Amino acid sequence: MYKIGDVVIYGTEGICKIKDITEKRFEGNKIEYYILCPLKKAGETVYVPCRNEKIMSKMRAVLTEDGANQLLNKIPVAEEMWIENERERQRAYKDILLYGTSEDLMIMAKNLHLHQERQEERGKKLHVADERFLKDAEKMLIDELAYALGVSTSEAWEMVSSHRHIHQ
Question: What are the chain's domains?
Answer without folding.
Answer: 7-61 (2.40.10), 65-164 (1.20.58.1290)
